[in-house]
TrEMBL record:
Organism superkingdom: Bacteria
Record's keyword terms, sorted: Aminotransferase, Pyridoxal phosphate, Transferase
SUPFAM superfamilies: PLP-dependent transferases (SSF53383)
Annotated InterPro entries: Aminotrans_3, PyrdxlP-dep_Trfase, PyrdxlP-dep_Trfase_major, PyrdxlP-dep_Trfase_small
Quaternary context: Homotetramer.
Cofactor(s) of this protein: pyridoxal 5'-phosphate
Listed GO MF terms: transaminase activity
This protein's name: alanine--glyoxylate transaminase
Organism (species): Streptomyces iconiensis
UniProt cross-references to CDD domains, sorted A to Z: OAT_like
Lineage: Bacteria, Bacillati, Actinomycetota, Actinomycetes, Kitasatosporales
One protein family per Pfam: Aminotran_3
Length: 445
């Protein structure tokens, strides 16, 4: 297996791409001018249909949390599949109870209850429904530039317009500052001033609402918004204000959970001073690619629904088997610690290779959730062109990374590998990225 040689630009879509375009929606985003067909993976590597090998620094959009084809997960899935693939939540389900107990204990939420779904969008849907029912209000606070999924209600509260294709919503949503540090009216403030300004903005917003507000939903580090994190403690400052009004705090941990941010197991723990959130939502990494999502909530909130409800695929035994095996591996191998160590080194290396490059505005992130924001050289203008060049160049040299939209208009490179990434792999990635960034600098300079 070899890495592809040289950039492959202007090559017409291959047959599968043409078939894809003929039958799937136009708005289904595809990376690369000549899209990749990934056929298999192992560890931190994947292979395409032409036999090219890539170091995967995007992990299927943060879903491959431990490693591709991790034997422990594969074995657990196949053993469960041989017994039974699926039973309804109408029957007792041992792997589901096992995983629920473990997640409840890890969540930090007292007297926690767990409800499993099949995606992050459904998880946020459920959390919003619970908040609405509990508080008898459909007013929701969300952060500007946020992303919470593609179901109707998740889209309806998402602040990031490029990911929110409809202005219709079952919620009345109020957007507050706090997501993006580097752009906007508060960009020049230091951490303490930024926190104070955002808290004041929240209080001001609450002063303008009529009736009660159900919840604030927030990503501790904005994912699709460009891997931007507020100062530690900002959500704790929010929490104190919210508590005065009885408003619930939902932490959307779909991208930030399971130790990805290195210093903490959950993103909310960087804002723990005022206690845990009332609910957290999770998905992506826990199944290592199997579709698991869910909500953890205080019992009082989770049990406020006066109805029968269930999820056909939420808690399906085969996905729960994957989740249990994956979580065991993650904890036994201290992958949170690895994310902190290797992520810290990679952040330093990326800062070093970007120094002096006019297209790089900022290299940021936590643990193994790192972003490189690109601009037109010598300006503050986001450069999606630079991001496209870097993506094509890195792919051509055997490296997969992601990109993000939001206020930075698709000009942030996103690095979120499996949490088993080694130092040598991080070094290799930094070398390929350096070359790609320099190519973009020359092409746009
Ligand atoms: N919340 C966040 C923060 C996300 O990044 C995503 C997906 O990218 C979702 C929710 C939606 O999850 P899913 O795509 O599994 O529905």
């Amino acid at each position: 297996m070899s890495s592809p040689q040289g950039p492959q630009r202007g090559i017409p879509p291959h047959e599968l791409h043409a078939r894809h375009r003929a039958v799937l929606p136009d708005w289904l985003a595809l990376y690369y001018q000549r899209p990749l067909e990934i056929t298999h993976g192992e560890g931190r590597h994947v292979w395409d249909a032409e036999g090219n090998r890539y170091l995967d620094l995007f992990g299927g959009v943060l879903t491959t949390m431990t490693a591709h084809a991790l034997p422990e997960v594969t074995k657990a899935v196949s053993e469960q599949a041989e017994r039974i693939l699926h039973t309804s939540t109408l029957y007792l389900n041992r792997p589901m109870v096992d995983l629920a107990e473990r997640i409840a204990a890890l969540s930090g939420i007292p007297d926690a209850r767990v409800f499993f779904t099949a995606s992050g969008s459904e998880a946020n849907d459920t959390a919003l429904m619970l908040a609405t029912a509990y508080r008898q209000s459909n007013q929701v606070l969300a952060l500007r530039n946020s992303y919470h999924g593609r179901s109707f209600s998740a889209v309806g509260i998402t602040g990031n317009r490029s990911w929110s294709p409809t202005s219709l919503s079952p919620f009345h949503t109020l957007y507050v500052h706090g997501g993006v540090r580097t752009r906007g009216p508060f960009a020049h403030l230091d951490d303490a001033e930024f926190t104070a300004a955002c808290a004041e903005d929240l209080e001001d917003m609450l002063g303008q609402t009529r009736g009660s507000v159900a919840a604030l939903i927030a990503e501790p580090v904005q994912g699709i918004g460009g891997f931007t994190a507020p100062p530690d403690g900002l959500l704790a400052a929010f929490r104190e204000i919210l508590q005065q009004h009885g408003i619930l705090w939902i932490s959307d941990e779909v991208q930030t959970g399971w130790g990805r941010t290195g210093d903490h197991f959950w993103g909310w723990q960087a804002h723990a001073a005022a206690g845990p959130p009332d609910m957290l939502t999770f998905a992506k990494g826990i199944g290592n690619g199997m579709s698991i999502g869910g909500v953890v909530a205080r019992a009082e909130v989770m049990n406020c629904l006066d109805a029968n409800s269930f999820s056909t695929f939420g808690g399906s035994p085969v996905t729960m088997a994957a989740g249990n095996a994956n979580l065991t591996y993650l904890l036994e191998h201290d992958l949170q610690g690895n994310a902190r160590r290797v992520g810290g080194l990679l952040l330093e290396r990326l800062r070093a290779v970007s120094a002096g490059l006019g297209i790089v505005r900022e290299v940021r992130g936590r643990g193994l959730m790192l972003g490189i924001e690109l601009v037109l050289p010598g300006t503050e203008d986001p450069s999606p062109e630079a991001a496209s060049i870097v993506l094509e160049e890195t792919r051509a040299h055997g490296l997969l990374i992601g990109r993000a939209g939001g206020h930075s208009t698709n000009s942030v490179l996103r690095i979120a590998p499996p949490l088993t990434l080694t130092v040598a792999e991080a070094e290799e990635a930094a070398t390929i990225l350096e070359r790609a960034l320099r190519t973009a600098e020359i092409e746009l300079g």
